[in-house]
Specification:
elongated, 3 helices, 5-stranded mixed beta sheet, 175 residues, alpha/beta
Amino acid sequence: MKHDRLQPLLLGSACLLLTLMMIGCRISYKFNGAALDYTVYKTVTVGNFPIRAALVYPPLQQTFENELLNYITRNTRLQVNDGNADLQLEGEITGYNLSPQAVTENAIASKTRLTIQVRVRYTDTKNDNNDIDQTFSAYRDFDSSLMLTEVQEELCQEISEELVQLIFNATLGNW
């Protein structure tokens, strides 16, 4: 008999607790890693990233800029514009280097490393504590028996994708 009287009380208490939890807690999931408050940040400007490296592969600038712009539009709700924006990304490609790797006993490199460096200036017009001026670097190794011209386009695309993820995580991802 006592259990019959307690059951409505327990059910009412459970409903009240659940209601309080729903009011007091807000669960937020960010599947893309972006940690932006869209009530504050609405626009972003992505400037040009000219090549300032000693060794130049002209298509790299367009490949990198397109990858950066596409990644931002796919992973945020920010409106991209060319003028003043809440967030601004600009910089230059400062390094495009080849270096021998995995030297064999005959003192011949069996692998060559292509390294690309990008200097990024990130400006948060709403909070200058978030501003960044940093160089990011990524590389890929390829077999030294191949000519750079054979693998250059594919390597530049892969490296650009990695650089964009690093840049996004350090700026818009706000890790």
